[in-house]
Amino acid sequence: MDETGNCYDVAQSPERAHVACFARILEDRAHKQSYYVEFRGTPAHEDAARKDWAVIRQDEYGNRAEVARLQWEQGARAFADVYEADPRHMQTYFVESVAARS
Fold first, then answer.
1. For residues 70 and 76, what is the distance between their CA atoms, to the nearest angstrom?
2. CB-based contact 66:31 (threshold 8 Å)
3. Could you point out which of 8, 16, 87, 89 has its C-alpha 20 to 30 Å from the C-alpha of 44?
């Protein structure tokens, strides 16, 4: 949303974590606009299969890398939070669910 209240779509993704991360990156650049995530469409059916939790590192250009994969969401979020809080790391860290490895 710009300073006069006009809204524009900037990105779309089936993964909320992806667009939330992108919105945070844009917000951190201190533009006059504000960025937020808005749900659209029908949610995908969640598979009953076990999921792992991937800690993802994303730079300002959108390049992503999986840093770690854990079985517990709380542990993955704690891992990501430690990296996110360290000012030496210039990337953004977040967690998303992924299919478990066989």
1. 6
2. no
3. 8
